[in-house]
Amino acid sequence: MATPIPDNCAVFSLRQIVEVTGAQLSGCGDGHVSGVTTDSRSDTSGKLFVALSGDRFDGHDYLHDVVDRGARAVIVERDTLLELPVPILRVDSTLRALGSIARLHRNRWNGKVIAIAGSAGKTTTRVATQALLEAIYPGSVHATPGNLNNQVGVPMTLLGLTDQHNYAVIEVGTNFPGEVRALAEVCQPDVAVLTLIGLEHTEGLGDLDGIEAEEGDIFGILAPGSVAIGNGDDRRVVRQLARRALQARQVTYGCEQFVDYSATHQPGQHIDTTSIGIQRSERTGGGRLVFESTLLGKPGALAAAAAVAVAESLGPPIDDACVGQALFRNNLGEAGRLIVLKLNEGIVVVDDCYNANPPSMTSSIAVATELAERRQSRLILVLGEMRELGPHSEREHRILGNKLGAASVVVAVGQQTQPLFDSARSAGVPSEYFSNADEAGVRIADLAEPGDVVLVKGSRGVKLEVVVRALAAKKGYAA
To answer: Model pTM?
Structure first.
């Protein structure tokens, strides 16, 4: 489910690149490049190739290949002398150089950047914000595709900005301390949104206080005249707004009464829709929006409220028809990101298998529970490992297992879910355990009964899309 990095045609002179990266140039510096790429398999003709290195790849191994296919210049971080017929730019870190080049491109572009960070809800909020802005300003919105929210994906997304774009909606992720700040410095956001602060990637980020400090960095770089938008239901987000967004105009959203954009939700007219209400505070103009959306449950309502807050921070107030048109679309969601799949026999699958951590697990289970209660049907929870929790893993899986009393059946997948399985079974919930997704997929295809609601959610590495495919293959999609 890795997202391909999109192509771009951003033009730079070699001297511009040397200036922003501090590179040592070998060869003629009078030329220019049309596009930047990190993928040796892509079209490199006329482009700058940035030789990134990782655990499983090294772009330096493909320098001759990309030059043979027309690359106009290369950026490297090795001191080894190379014999290439194109300019070579040597830097200490090609990854940092990529960020510097993207920041240059962002700063010479005249539009507005909206950066979205948080422990959960980033993608739903990004999708909702992109859809709403696109409805208001057709054809002028650029956004993060798929999961490109890291130190490669964010710069490469920004490099796709062109003169036709007036707005960029950029998702900002993190796995280690300092990543949010580094990406914020590349994005230079005009509007920053913080969705939630909860346990995530604790192997790299540490405890909740460390995660709070890391995610709060999205506000730390905001300049005077910018806007900081935060989930007012989350006390840690509110604290970061107060501490870090001192130069920005502060706006809150949530489901509580005393926020600037207060969201309510209830079941929509269809199984895969939600009826959402958003009440504005007096300081944001007052008035209420009511609309139907294909964004599900409370997560969908919060994402919609954040999107409205962004849109109205950038322009005039919007109306029900505008937001309803934008957020009531069959293609609004992304595969594996809390979307509803309708199978034969009335079986409903909530496919949220892309990733998982404690707050997102709790949120998605609540959505699936609402659907099952509405339909008065059985609820099957297929829950994979929540990875990268480090020393918190056993405790968090056990805590989650104790919260699954509404489920008819729990299926735990992966070694780290053993405590979840044990605690759910001890609480009296019928539970099964499988070591991998292939085994779980075979079982779920037999276990699902007519009318069931099945939530499938786990960390990316568990590959629970296998379960979704197995169930769909056995039952078939509803007409």
So the answer is: 0.94
